[in-house]
């Protein structure tokens, strides 16, 4: 499996497994210390991927926040922040979203074929829009990223994207952060939806690490032999 980048999935959930609530506001599940840990993980990757739903809903910057970590990357001959990657079927992406306007990292949009032309026009000068077929196959996307020099990819959500990488067996490591409260609203997105996962009662995932970070807990699961479980 060396023809695709190392894939690290990262997300935070409530105690009842929600990624968000159903309000219009962004729900803060993590805490400052954990966000700093996430920043360090970002700084160690070549690219960060989120689904178009997360770009629309959360308007994330997806840059390395720490000036020291940005400087260290630059000193190693890397861009200050990893490339930003998203995937869309319909191409409904706002060119003024922070994904496109913050930082100077490369931005790549994997777009389903029927929407490529209009998306390319909408995002001209803001991103490289790649015709990714119909439907977009995560394995193909990973192979394409490998061809662009991405060796280590961080996937930061949302539910749909995380579910696809997990069910396809295209994940090496999962960083799951548990926030100390409940959402309790079935209208909110859960970590993942229904699906057939490679990890089930007959094939349990390996815990590589647990760490308390203030009031949250990080569980690092090794999902492939590529993940160092020590
Ligand atoms: N707690 C956390 O750590 C965390 C992290 C990230 C996100 N979130 C939350 O997760 C929620 C968003 O999750 P979500 O499932 O709605 O969105 P998502 O996974 O971010 O994005 C889903 C969208 O991505 C595109 N997409 C995904 N797979 C595709 C494929 N194979 N081919 C073509 N397009 C594809 C589609 O975009 P189009 O609709 O454009 O076609 C789809 O609607 C938000 O509430 C956000 O706050 C939480």
TrEMBL record:
This is Dihydrofolate reductase family protein. Keywords: NADP, Oxidoreductase. The keyword Membrane does not apply. Residues 5-218 form the Bacterial bifunctional deaminase-reductase C-terminal domain. It comes from Micromonospora reichwaldensis. Pathway: Cofactor biosynthesis; riboflavin biosynthesis. The keyword NADP applies. It holds the Pfam family RibD_C. InterPro entries: DHFR-like_dom_sf, RibDG_C, Riboflavin_Biosynth_HTPR.
């Amino acid at each position: 499996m060396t023809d695709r980048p190392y894939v690290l999935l990262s997300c935070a959930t409530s105690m009842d497994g929600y990624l968000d609530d159903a309000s219009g506001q962004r729900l803060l599940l993590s805490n400052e210390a954990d966000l700093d840990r996430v920043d360090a993980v970002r700084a160690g990757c070549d690219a960060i991927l989120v689904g178009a739903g997360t770009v629309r809903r959360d308007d994330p910057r997806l840059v390395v926040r720490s000036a020291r970590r940005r400087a260290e990357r630059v000193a190693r001959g890397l861009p200050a922040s990893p490339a930003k990657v998203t995937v869309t079927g319909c191409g409904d992406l706002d060119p003024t979203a922070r994904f496109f306007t913050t930082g100077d990292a490369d931005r790549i949009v994997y777009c389903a074929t029927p929407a490529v032309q209009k998306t390319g026009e909408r995002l001209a000068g803001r991103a490289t829009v790649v015709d990714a077929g119909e439907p977009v196959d995560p394995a193909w996307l990973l192979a394409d990223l490998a061809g662009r020099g991405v060796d280590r990819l961080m996937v930061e959500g949302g539910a749909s994207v995380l579910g696809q990488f997990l069910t396809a067996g295209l994940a090496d490591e999962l960083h799951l952060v548990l926030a100390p409260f409940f959402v309790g609203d079935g209208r909110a997105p859960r970590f993942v939806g229904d699906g057939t996962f490679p990890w089930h009662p007959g094939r349990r995932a390996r815990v590589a690490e647990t760490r308390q970070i203030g009031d949250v807990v990080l569980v690092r699961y090794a999902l492939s032999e590529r993940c160092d479980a020590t």
